[in-house]
Amino acid sequence: MKESKQSLPEFVVCINNVDYPASLELHKIYRVLADEDAASEGDIRIIDESGEDYLYPSSYFAPIQVPQTVEESLLRAS
Q1: Which residue, 7, 10, 21, 35, has fewest beta-carbon neighbours within 10 Å?
Q2: Quick one: DSSP state of residue 58?
Q3: What pLDDT score was predicted for residue 75?
Q4: Which run of H or E residues covers position 3?
Q5: Options 1.10.12.10, 2.40.30.40, 1.10.287.70, 2.30.30.40; which CATH number does 2-77 get?
């Protein structure tokens, strides 16, 4: 199981919000929540602008790696 978690990006940036302009901010960094079922169907689970976690098409996001200090800051803000 740990191996599948490592393949999942911990953070993504929104590159398309055309269908969800109120829920997703273009170019914003979002934290990914592990959801293997969603991933197998081409979706990704993130905490959106409502503060709740929802599924969105994976194609709306690009995986990113952030520096350790940025990661720590993002995780504190959650």
Answers
A1: 7
A2: G
A3: 83
A4: helix 2-7
A5: 2.30.30.40
